[in-house]
Batch of 4 targets.
Target 1
Amino acid sequence: MVSTGTYQSVLKADLLVRPLVPDDVATVMDIERQGYSHPWTESVFLDCFKDNYRLWAASHGETLVGYAVVAYMVDEAHLLNICVHPGARGKGVGRHILRHVVSTAAHEGMIQLLLEVRASNAMARALYENEGFREIGKRPGYYPAANGREEALVMVLEFGQ
């Protein structure tokens, strides 16, 4: 665990986005549990270390402050999970990771990036819209919630070919 003071100094420097490795999963699980009411399990993360997935870590030195998991399916990329440590939020980390995901997917020949976002997550929705994503549908009852299920908005960013 890194103190909030350490996050302040880390985030003043440039972030490095690098491939996530299995040794990162313990730190990822810590961030995941702090970031989500219904976090992924360790086994779900470990199952994503396959050829058709891209797993990214945002870090500065040894301090991992965020991550993203993307699945590649034929010519589409699907952002499955993106999370930033609570102590590092609001400092551009999520945007930095998202831009890396987008640029890598486009460079690797994907035609679009899809994602689902909780309808109630206004901050994430604003980020995606600001980065050019548009809503293309809804998935009722997609996410588990404290009082049942919550709707997801399906969003897409199409890459110019």
Note: The radius of gyration is 15 Å.
Target 2
Amino acid sequence: MLYSIELHDMEFRAYHGCYDLEQKVGNRFRVGLKISAELGEVAERDDVSLAVNYLTVYEVVARVMQRKQRTIEAVAQNIIQAVRREFGQIAEVECRVSKLAPPLGGKVGAVSVTLRG
């Protein structure tokens, strides 16, 4: 049986961007994850050590967000890969990375990419 864990609206100050200035001054980013994993004996045993621990997931995402990357596509891909490495029972991860107030020459609330893997 599969179950899902969702982490909504994680916000980070990070230094991702295709422009050198973005990598110097940084920007605000929002990350959302939806993780599908094998339930196994998590519920039956009521044992958090068997579950996908959402605190650990947050820490993994925070580590990936600390590395400068040029594209938010790369950020999302690296988050998915890092979370999957941490938890073998994961079947699929959907990751949405949004750059808030991107420098596009006009008022734009955010630009986002969503990857699933």
Note: The helical segments are 20-25, 42-45, 54-66, 72-86.
Target 3
Amino acid sequence: MPRLGSAIASTILSLFSAVSLVGVDTAQAAFLTYNFQAEGGGGSGFFKVDNSSLTGIDFEGIAVSEGRLDTYLTISKDYYNLAGAIALFDQGEFLGLQASGGESSISIIPDESGAPYAQYETSASWRMENNGSFSLFSGEKYVTTIIFSTGEGIVDRSTPPVNYAPVSYTLVDTAAEPVPEPLTAGAAALALAGLSWLKHKKKMAV
């Protein structure tokens, strides 16, 4: 009986320690919200990322759960959705965002007789990347005009491009994930083990 009691006590302590450690590790996970700004008028926005899978070892990338980029590099969009973009980390430290996007459209302008004489092809593209030390933003927007009567193509790049503009990030929110409290989980394990011991003792008394 003393040996059985000792074994049960040891098991209880092991369960308590294991549950407590799991609770502590998981409680460190959080949903991080960042605001960002690209210099040179490239744009600004925000994104959210769940860092629960982050190990803090070497170079890691985590998919963004929610986010948006407001920029002039659009044609029909109001903004670009950043969900699925990659947040880059090195040794657990945030480096920057890796993302890209763009859109294009074609419109044909007819002459007075109703026959088309010009086609306008509008294109916009952008990219966010990290060179290992800095987060950078690049993008351009231009219109290509094709004259049907002559076959001539005229490219209008009057809108200034953004070339490798630095991007600054600000951590604005760290919301912890809902996880069981370590002490609560440990107390539950103790209660279950204690109940098993009482049942065993009652059975032996009969």
Note: Residues 59 and 182 are 30 Å apart (CA to CA).
Target 4
Amino acid sequence: MKKLFLITILLLMTASVFAQEQEAKVRIPSGYQGFFEYGNTYLFDDNPSLMNFSTTHGFYMNGHTYVGIGISIDTKYLLFLLPIYGNVRYVFNNNRVVSPVVGLRLGCFDTKTVGFYGDLTIGLRFATKRDFAISFLISGTHYNGVYFRYRHPYTDEYGIDHMERCWGSRNNLTGISLRLGIEW
């Protein structure tokens, strides 16, 4: 995973350097924008990674600052999280083809009780001359107060095997996410 992470960072930096050479004018974002992102969250503990899909809708306050709300579906096996969040995003060079982006998502999710969701993102935005862009993002993601369902096998006093559904708890899930996003 460390090699994949380092290769991704090197590719993003290389693309940024080459794209800064181009002075192509692109449409400066304004008004309503929607985002759709797909990614994987690689968790720091022994849990498998989470696959996530998210959509965010909001407005550019000026050509640089975006504010919106969104929802995400993060799942792997029987762990299913549905965060609802507020999103703030800042685009640095909004009139260039490639521009750096930082973003922050804060919200909550409900499994059995309400938990906290936080996500800090950095990446590159590849814009077109129209109202469309593709983003490559790396983010640190944190879930606090996670409850999940699992199946517990047991044998009753007659020797019959059963599967019981149970709730488990995990205080924190933290990891690094790699995402691909589109903006329209």
Note: The first helix runs from residue 2 to 20.
